[in-house]
Design goal:
There is one protein chain. By secondary structure, this protein is α/β, with parallel strands linked by helices. The chain has two domains: 166 residues, Vaccinia Virus protein VP39 (Rossmann fold), CATH 3.40.50; 65 residues, S-adenosyl-L-methionine-dependent methyltransferases (N-terminal domain of TfIIb), CATH 2.20.25.110. It contains seven helices and eleven strands. The strands form two sheets. It has a seven-stranded mixed β-sheet with strand order 3-2-1-4-5-11-10, sandwiched between helices. Strands 6-7-8-9 form a four-stranded antiparallel β-sheet, with helices on one face. Helix 1 runs parallel beside helix 4. The radius of gyration is 18 Å and the shape is globular.
């Protein structure tokens, strides 16, 4: 894993490949964002671009609904899972998968709607990286095309409580191996740098009692609202709305999500 000189730890392709096989089970019950994404897709008509598409959780249903899609991801194994899902849906001819860094990958286009969800934007660990990526994405949007960015809303009290203790997240059964999979995580925060240091742990306990542990460590750089708005303005976007949840309710102090909808200028 590559660490920058200031000790910021990026989620490399190797790290993402390591956890790709857990992704579908980990997020099997998560579809909070799908209805809103489908609404914006319907409004714009496509083609659509998903940045950091992972294992195709959103790509597959959107392609099945008839939208032409491009999905870009750093992880070959995530894209392999996405490809299998899309082929099973019968919509493979609607989807182009791009393996690469979304900061600079060849994305074709132009797209009427691009989106990046589930904190994936926070893998950009410096303002320079954020601006490079946003300006790159704007170039691949149609005139006045929309970009949606979904990140968590930082809670000061919760951030201050992150002391590296091991937290249980969820447990599930792997139907193929019969293993019980337990997901744990530990987090610490650097308030001055706005960095979350995240350690993911997946423990697989097999029927014969064997234990296999998979580790993944990376940083996330969280954003405050007006910091994000200035960043987007500087990158050539005009703010359309800030939502606090996937029901597209108002962004408020107690909101858990910060969903920014912006329009490309020029």
């Amino acid at each position: 894993m590559n660490t920058t000189s200031d000790h910021r730890v990026r989620a490399t392709a190797d790290v993402l490949d390591r956890i790709a096989r857990f992704f579908d089970a980990d997020y099997a019950n998560y579809a909070d964002d799908l209805q809103a994404i489908e609404m914006f897709a319907q409004k714009t008509g496509g083609p659509l671009l998903e940045l950091g598409c992972g294992a195709g959780r959103l790509l597959a249903p959107l392609a099945e609904a008839g939208y032409r899609m491009t999905g870009v991801d750093l992880s070959p194994k995530m894209l392999q899972a996405a490809r299998s899902k899309i082929e099973a849906s019968g919509a493979a001819d609607h989807v182009t998968l791009v393996e690469g860094d979304y900061r600079n990958a060849a994305l074709a286009g132009p797209y009427r709607f691009a989106f990046i969800v589930m904190n994936t934007f926070l893998h950009l660990l410096t303002q320079a990286d954020q601006l490079v990526a946003l300006r790159h994405w704007r170039k691949h949007l149609a005139p006045r095309g929309l970009l949606l960015i979904d990140v968590f809303h930082p809670d000061v009290a919760q951030l201050a409580s992150l002391d590296g203790r091991l937290e249980w997240d969820k447990t599930w059964q792997d139907p193929v191996t019969g293993a019980t999979v337990m997901k744990l995580l530990s987090r610490t925060v650097d308030l001055a740098e706005q960095l979350l240091h995240v350690n993911l742990i997946y423990d697989e306990i097999f029927p014969d009692g064997q234990l296999k542990r998979t580790l993944a460590a990376f940083d996330l750089r969280y954003l405050w609202r007006y910091e994000a708005e200035l960043l987007l303005e500087k990158a050539g976007f005009t703010l359309e709305a800030v939502y606090g949840d996937w029901g597209l309710g108002p962004f408020e102090s107690a909101s858990e999500r910060m969903i920014l909808l912006v329009r490309a200028r020029g």
